[in-house]
Amino acid sequence: MGGQVGPYVQIDPSVVLGEDVRIFGFANLYGCSIGDRTKIGTFVEIQKNASVGTDCKISSHTFVCEGVRIGNRVFIGHNVTFVNDMYPRATNADGSLQTQANWKVLETHIEDGASLGSSVTVLAGVRIGAGAIVGAGSVVTKSVGPGEIWAGNPARYMRKVDA
User: Fold this and answer.
1) CA atoms within 13 A on the CB side of 155
2) What pLDDT digit, counting tens, does each position of 29-67 carry?
């Protein structure tokens, strides 16, 4: 693997780590893949069937759930949360606890070079285009085009990124 792993990091054997990955303390990774030279901050969880590309920065307190695909050179600010189920429930109609068989993961894609500010929430099934920027505190409910800046709750188009 090569790289640095901080104290109290939980990395399941199913994780595929690239070269020179840096993972800071209290991170939890299982069933995911992380590309070369990516930095993962403290208190980050990355779940199974999620992927992070090369040269990314995933800041502290971020939650990357199953079905999230993060491209290369992506910046994810502090406390970013991804959602993979638009209608979550704890139980079925008969009162039994739901299992993975009871719901369908909606994939979310963050394309190359995008940046998400701190405390952004990204809903399931959204695509954030290459080079796009999402402002801090935004709630992304629909797809963001390449090179666009979006902000607010719900997030809305502001303008194109300056060249």
Assistant:
1) 28
2) 999 999 999 999 999 999 999 999 999 999 999 999 999
Pick the CATH number of 3-86+102-160 from 3.40.50.300, 2.160.10.10, 3.40.800.10, 3.40.50.720: 2.160.10.10
Strands lying side by side in the sheet with 10-11: 10-11, 28-29, 45-46, 63-64, 81-82, 121-122, 139-140
Please list, residue by residue across 11-42, b when 16 or more beta carbons sit within 10 angstroms of its beta carbon and e when fewer do: beeebebbeebebbebbebbebbbbbbbbbbb
